[in-house]
Amino acid sequence: MAASSESLPTIVLDQNLVEAEKFRLRKMFVEIDTNRDGKIDIQELTQGLKRMGYFHITSDQVEVIIFRLATLKWSSFKIGFLI
After folding, report:
1. DSSP output for 34-51
2. pTM
3. What ranges do the domains of the chain cover?
C-alpha cells in the first residue's frame, strides 16, 4: 500500500543558495517533473538522469538511492521542490 503524500518526506534546500543556483535547480526540477505534479518520482528521476546523459543508471539503482535518503517505513518516495 502506498503512503499518503502527507507522510512522504520532502527535501528542502538551504535557503542561503544564491538566486542563480535556485533558478538552475528549479529549471532542472521542472524539466524532470514530466507529469507536473510538483514531485519527482523514481520513474521521472530515472528518465531525467538518462536525458542528462547518465544512461548507465537503472531505475533499480535510482530506487536504492532514494530509499537510502528516506527511511524504509515509506513504500514510495517523491522529491518536492520548496524554495
Report:
1. TT-SSEE-HHHHHHHHHH
2. 0.61
3. 5-80
